[in-house]
Amino acid sequence: MIQHPNRLPGERIDFWASLPFVLVHFVPLLTILTGIGWHDWQMLLVTFFGRMFFITGGYHRYFAHKTYKTSRVFQFILALGGSTAVQKGALWWAGNHRLHHRFTDTVQDVHSPIKGVLYSHVGWILAPHADPTPTEAISDFTKYPELRFLNNHDFIGPWALAIGCYFWGGWSGLLVGFFLSTVMLWHATFLVNSMAHLVGTRRYATSDSSRNNAFVALLCMGEGWHNNHHHLQSSCRQGFKWWEIDVTYYILKFLSLFRIVWDIKRPNPTAKEAALIADGAYDIGMFRFHWDKATTRVASATQRDDLLEVRAEFSDLADRTLEAAERLGAQTRGAGRRERTETTV
Ligand SMILES: [Zn+2]
Ligand SMILES: [Zn+2]
Q1: Overall average pLDDT of the 129-158 stretch
Q2: pLDDT category, 285, cuts 50, 70, 90?
């Protein structure tokens, strides 16, 4: 099989190593034997949204982006809670996520849709390339031995929760409250990497393909306002308008009342009004994305490696030209705004 032109060596799905992950998807079918009760659905709600908070509020907004502060004890609780979601340890998750922001929609981005839609959704975690923890990207947290321990023993959280579900709800509780919930949680989280870079609206002209997607935002407790997030990564709040529901932020605000967390970062008002597409900011992210899609197809169809080099050279040149045009445009718009203000006053 031909390697996708945008994938690096090692970014190829390892079929045999992926088998346990694939098989887990079929485990909930065993409920044919046990039946499902009302209590099991209640467990599913608790384990789905409870663990989702640890991923969004813990792994993402705390470990990957440090958008608020907390104690070392609560930091440990966030890492332990997140590990029950079967998405590896906090250091692995947050380190890879930082790489996603550092290299968004380039070949170094671990899960960009430019490597294929299915690859960005799930394929990347099944490739040997993404297996090790990128410690250099998360060195500010690797100094904590308890976090290193949890990261190296990431089976403890899932096993503890699975056993807990069995004692709480019996076999059907284990199948629905743990296995079905885990599969749903995986794909909901993965939608942020796939769907929130492909479907939705763009408010800000970021240099990537991020979108605001209300469906993903509701399912993932606020994480679907992904274009807002790519624009202002340091902001804890990701829903910028009152109607952009951001449950993770509301929970963190609630926890701040008891000083469990503090120094929650809000979006900077100036930055919030910058690079708005509605103001005419040139959407370089979409240009890059569509340009890459078109040229990748040509290169793949012809299977000519020399076209890849020409494509990269032309892309760099086009990017530089557009960035210069965007700077010029921004200055012009700024001058226009000043003029308007002066005449009004
Ligand atoms: Zn992020
Ligand atoms: Zn993203």
Answers
A1: 96
A2: confident
Residue 342 Cα, ligand 1 centroid: separation in angstroms?
Answer: 39
Into how many domains does the chain fold? 2
Side chain identity, residue 2: I
Point out the ligand nearest to the CA of residue 62: 1
pTM: 0.88
| Amino acid at residue number 148 | R
Tell me how far the alpha carbon of residue 239 lies from the centroid of ligand 1, in angstroms. 13
Q: Are 258 and 288 in the same domain?
A: no
Angle at 278 between CA 272 and CA 281, to 5 degrees: 80
Q: Are residues 233 and 253 in the same domain?
A: yes
Are 266 and 283 in the same domain? no
Q: Are residues 161 and 298 in the same domain?
A: no
Q: Cα of 105 to ligand 2 centre, how many Å? A: 9
Q: Which amino acid is at 328?
A: L
Do 310 and 258 reside in the same domain of the chain?
no
Task: Report the SS3 class of residue 204.
Answer: strand
